[in-house]
């Protein structure tokens, strides 16, 4: 069974953030709370970690994994930043908004050659940001459930479904139910490709306010 870390005052202690960050950087699988259910992830810089997440998830390799970073400035190293991305990130990051953007030369490390874009996000949950920042690397992630099964909203359900396959579990209590909204921000106008916790109207409104 995985080691479990608990939150203090809503986030990880510096020592636990460092422990979780080191686990992810070291290709271990970490399950953790976000503002849109629990996620499972690991370093985005080692393809073996990506393959392991896909295997545990029982997810097709034809569906690329999304990326989390701890800040907007960190995102700019990995994706080609656009004025549209700047406007949307200023409004909705940290939060459940995935921006679909072209990778930089360095960002190609986060995906496979056949994928022309990367979906990237800064999570609102302070524990997720703390461990990612402590790791010093971007993380690939997906929801912490088997493919086709419901998203997990508490640590005990994650443990029941994925406990045998993950290395570290961060217990953050009950997580909100919902998915991030996915917006293609690589051009001049937003293209909402998946509506989640942020509505298409909110995306449009943020650009006209």
Description:
With 209 residues, this protein is of the alpha/beta class. It has one domain (3-208): DHBP synthase, CATH 3.90.870. The chain has seven helices and ten strands. The protein has helices at 14-25, 47-57, 72-75, 83-92, 126-135, 155-162, 200-208; strands spanning 3-6, 30-33, 38-43, 66-68, 97-101, 118-121, 139-143, 168-171, 181-184, 191-194. Strands 1-8-2-3-7-4-6-5-9-10 form a ten-stranded mixed sheet, sandwiched between helices. Strand 9 (181-184) and strand 10 (191-194) form a beta hairpin. Helix 1 crosses helix 5 (126-135). The longest helix is centred in the N-terminal third of the chain and has 12 residues, at 14-25. The mean pLDDT is 96.
Query: How many distinct beta strands?
Result: 10
Order of strands in the sheet with most strands: 1-8-2-3-7-4-6-5-9-10
**Largest beta sheet, briefly?**
10 strands, mixed
Mean pLDDT: 96
CATH architecture: Alpha-Beta Complex
Overall geometry comes to globular
Name of the top-level CATH class = Alpha Beta
What is the string of helix and strand elements?
EHEEHEHHEEHEHEEEH
Indicate the low-confidence ranges by residue numbers: none
CATH superfamily: DHBP synthase
């Amino acid at each position: 069974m995985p080691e479990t870390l608990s939150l203090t005052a809503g986030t990880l202690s510096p020592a636990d953030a460092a422990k979780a960050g080191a686990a992810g950087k070291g290709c271990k699988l970490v399950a953790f709370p976000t503002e849109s259910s629990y996620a499972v992830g690991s370093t985005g810089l080692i393809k073996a970690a990506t393959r392991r997440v896909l295997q545990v998830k029982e997810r097709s390799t034809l569906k690329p994994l999304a990326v989390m970073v701890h800040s907007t400035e960190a995102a700019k190293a990995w994706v080609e930043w656009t004025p549209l991305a700047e406007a949307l990130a200023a409004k909705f990051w940290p939060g459940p908004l995935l921006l679909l953007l072209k990778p930089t030369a360095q960002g190609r490390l986060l995906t496979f050659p056949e994928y022309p874009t990367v979906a990237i996000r800064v999570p609102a949950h302070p524990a997720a940001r703390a461990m990612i920042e402590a790791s010093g690397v971007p993380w690939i992630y997906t929801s912490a459930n088997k493919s086709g099964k419901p998203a997990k909203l508490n640590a005990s359900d994650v443990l029941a479904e994925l406990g045998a396959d993950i290395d570290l579990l961060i217990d953050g209590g009950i997580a909100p139910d919902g998915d991030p909204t996915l917006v293609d921000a690589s051009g001049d106008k937003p293209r909402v490709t998946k509506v989640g916790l942020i509505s298409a109207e909110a995306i449009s409104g943020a650009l006209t306010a």
